[in-house]
Write a structure and sequence with these properties.
By secondary structure, the chain is mainly alpha-helical. Helices cover 44% and strands 8% of the residues. The chain has a two-stranded antiparallel sheet with strand order 1-2. Helix 2 packs across helix 3.
Length: 101
């Protein structure tokens, strides 16, 4: 899995807006997030779902746990980009379903 402090499967993606590591075209965080939340998948299920080696999923989990601050900052930056472009509102985002007060 991790050899000498480096990951075997995860790599930077040249030209990406993200600093986090990737497995091919998939961000490490995407693989990791599948293993947490309301309906978490096992690492084996994630590997099957994304057609990646189980070791890549385990590396993604390790990487994301160890790099929480970077991932938080990237999500915040992405959220700001979406808002600045107006893509946080319909038709790009779901309409607010709350009844008028």
């Amino acid at each position: 899995m991790i050899k000498g402090g480096e990951y075997q499967y995860l790599r930077p993606k040249p030209g990406s807006n993200y600093k986090q590591l990737f497995f091919g075209r998939v961000r490490a965080e995407v693989l990791y997030r599948e293993t947490i939340g309301r309906q978490p998948l096992t690492p084996e299920e994630v590997a099957k779902e994304y057609n990646v080696p189980i070791a890549a999923v385990l590396e993604a989990i390790d990487y994301c746990v160890k790099n929480k601050e970077l991932l938080d900052a990237e999500r915040a930056r992405e959220s700001e980009r979406i808002k600045a472009a107006g893509r946080d509102k319909w038709p790009y985002a779901p309409k607010d379903l709350k009844p008028d007060a």
